[in-house]
Please model this.
Amino acid sequence: MKLTFKQIMGAVLFAALSSTVIDAIIFFIFKGLGIFDETIIDPASKATLTIAPVVMASIMPSIVAGLVFFLFEKFSNNGFKIFSIVSIVLVLLSLISPFNIPNVAMGFAIGLNLMHLVVAANVLFFINRAKKAQLEKI
Model:
């Protein structure tokens, strides 16, 4: 049985909330340890890393992922399997991007990568949980 748009968005909202909390904790731990310092400037925003972009980078990809999953779910018989494979490939590719920041320290890049993994893991976990709950209703 396929998930409805409402069920998918509900799962994604849980994923976004969970990712935001975990990523905020990671941010403040790394900031407190001096790993996320003021010396690294994001070339795109021309600013140092603050909590606001961390929150947005936790929420927005989750919502986009939910919309993509909805399309896979609607137009294929193996929506979650295809979505999982695509998600894993994309998150692995995303692990390269922090190392492209000029003058980035290894710890800084690892912290950003950890946050990438948190978002992907939460999205997959909550969508999978919604799929399992749907199957249990049958």
In short: The helical segments are 5-32, 51-75, 79-94, 106-136. The mean pLDDT is 93. The radius of gyration is 16 Å. The first helix runs from residue 5 to 32.
